[in-house]
From TrEMBL:
Keywords assigned: DNA-binding, Transcription, Transcription regulation
Coiled coil regions, renumbered to chain: none
High-level lineage: Bacteria, Bacillati, Actinomycetota, Actinomycetes, Micrococcales
Domain HTH gntR-type residue range list: 14-81
Keyword Cell membrane: no
A Gene Ontology molecular function term of the record: DNA-binding transcription factor activity
InterPro entries: GntR_C, TF_FadR/GntR_C, Tscrpt_reg_HTH_GntR, WH-like_DNA-bd_sf, WH_DNA-bd_sf
Keyword Transit peptide: no
UniProt-recorded name of the protein: GntR family transcriptional regulator
Length: 234
């Protein structure tokens, strides 16, 4: 049986590993670490003042999140998608996220819906891509918070993580007409949620995701299909 001191050490290390994972997750989602970039445990441990054991724990957490790919006895890289993989993931999102949204609607409540409306307004005035990505992510993931799920919610979060880099690329491709459509869709989505119109909310959301997929399909230059051992950090 594990005694109290051993449990305390495990709890402490687990908490430290989770905090380190949070820091690395933020770097990846902000684009500071890019797809196919190699994660060198020794350099990372030195730069963060952490042990290699904590770095390994953080990488295990991020692999479960879909942000890191680890090849046994070889190394870890920031996860990347080929063009075909990205299209498939977006097709999955088109089907899963409307379902999650439908399940979420009854549990959202007035406070969350008011926050969604505020986010839709704030996004309209944003010009910085990173701020747009942060607010857009908050809006969509908040719209799912009313759902109680065993699998679906975690699956959608993982899909969002794996497509974060490509959402950034999509955002950089938007022209004035695209932005106007995007903002209209956000407001239509919030209205359908406020009205309790699950069918309407599903339609708007599916179209919203589909438009991103089709836009990316017209820009193969966004994707780098080199094997994961072709890019590394110094």
């Amino acid at each position: 049986m594990t005694d109290a001191p051993e449990r305390a050490v495990a709890s402490r290390d687990g908490g430290a590993g989770a905090r380190l994972a949070d820091e690395l997750r933020a770097r990846i989602l902000r684009g500071e670490l890019v797809p196919r970039e190699r994660i060198r445990q020794e350099s990372l441990a030195a730069s963060l003042g952490a042990s290699r054991a904590l770095v390994r724990e953080a990488l295990r957490i991020l692999e479960a999140d879909g942000l890191i790919t680890t090849v046994p006895n070889t190394g870890s890289w920031v996860s990347a998608l080929s063009r075909a993989e990205c299209e498939e993931v977006y097709e999955i999102r088109e089907r899963l996220e409307p379902l999650l949204l439908r399940r979420s609607l009854p549990g959202l409540g007035p406070a969350r819906i008011a926050r969604l409306a505020d986010l839709a307004e704030r996004i309209r005035d944003v010009r910085d891509v990173e701020q747009f990505l942060r607010l857009d992510r908050e809006l969509h993931l908040l719209s799912y918070e009313g759902a109680e799920t065993a699998v679906l919610g975690d699956t959608v979060h993982r899909l969002w993580n794996t497509t974060q880099h490509y959402r950034r690329a999509f955002s950089l491709l938007l022209d004035a007409d695209d932005l106007r459509t995007l903002h209209e869709e956000h407001h239509m989505l919030v209205k359908a949620i406020r009205d309790g119109d699950a069918d309407g909310a599903e339609r708007v959301l599916a179209g919203h995701i589909r438009r991103t997929r089709l836009q990316l399909a017209h820009h193969p230059d966004v994707f780098d299909d080199e094997p994961t051992d072709q890019r590394s950090t110094p």
